[in-house]
Amino acid sequence: MDVFPDSPAAAAGLEAHTDFIVGCIDILFNDGEDFYTLIRSQVGKNVPLYVYSSKTKRVRLVNIQPNRSWGG
What we know:
alpha+beta; PDZ_sf; 28% strand; 3-stranded antiparallel β-sheet; 72 residues; 3 strands; Pdz3 Domain
């Protein structure tokens, strides 16, 4: 995934091309549309997401706050 400067993903510390968003507390994402549907419905709210790192081979929980100007 790409991480744009000043985006909610960058603010949450996500790393481009090594971090992969796999789901949230209640949902395991099947595809990108599942992710975008969730993000669009949570603008301005804190969204906990599970992120897999190919560098560390671990899943971690990060909080992202989507906004309308998010480029990613």
